[in-house]
Amino acid sequence: MRKAEKEQVVAESERGVDEAVHLIVSGYRGLTVKDITELRRRIREAGGQMRVVKKTLFRRALEGRDQAVLGEYMEGPIAVTFVSGDAIAVLKAMHEFARDHEQLDFKAGWVDSQLLQGAQLEELATLPPREELLGRLLAAMSGPVAQLVAMLQAVPRDLVATLHAVAVQREGEAAA
């Protein structure tokens, strides 16, 4: 590869890093071209873009950026997934693909301005959908509130029941 071509690749990678909010570095050794094409399609549908990169050129593109720590995790042939939107959706698509293709290996990622290692990315990929998590949070938050409302309603209800019992008792005494 000529110097001009290398500079162009580095510039494209820098542009991708600047535009992406999240980066996922994965190994793909052993995947066929057909498999990689399928993986790219799934990632694109989830809102990401995967590129097979040369490690040395990609490290150059990361120089001087916070994401430069990803360079430590680049071993073997690697692919970088650039995500501008929801990283979880892309991770889920990759994880689903990895179930059938064990060759796909999460190396590391830069998600929400944090370095995550492969196992942490796997955990994120197995989280329930956002809507389900929000539902669980709402249920957890509404439980104590519902108990408080029930307790506050019990005080006047018990007072009324006690006054009614006293009134019934006094009517019985007055009739006797």
Give a verbal description of the structure.
With 176 residues, the chain is an alpha+beta fold. It folds into two domains: 3-127, Alpha-Beta Plaits; 129-176. It is built from six helices and five strands, in the order αβαβαβαββαα. The chain has helices at residues 3-19, 33-46, 55-62, 87-100, 118-125, 130-175, and strands spanning 22-27, 48-53, 78-83, 105-111, 114-117. A five-stranded antiparallel sheet has the order 2-3-1-4-5, sandwiched between helices. Strand 4 and strand 5 (114-117) form a beta hairpin. The radius of gyration is 29 Å and the shape is rod-shaped. The termini are far apart. The model has no long low-confidence stretch (mean pLDDT 86).
What is this structure's SSE topology?
Blueprint: H1 3-19, E1 22-27, H2 33-46, E2 48-53, H3 55-62, E3 78-83, H4 87-100, E4 105-111, E5 114-117, H5 118-125, H6 130-175
Antiparallel strand pairs: 1-3, 1-4, 2-3, 4-5
Helix pairs in contact: 1-3, 2-4, 4-5
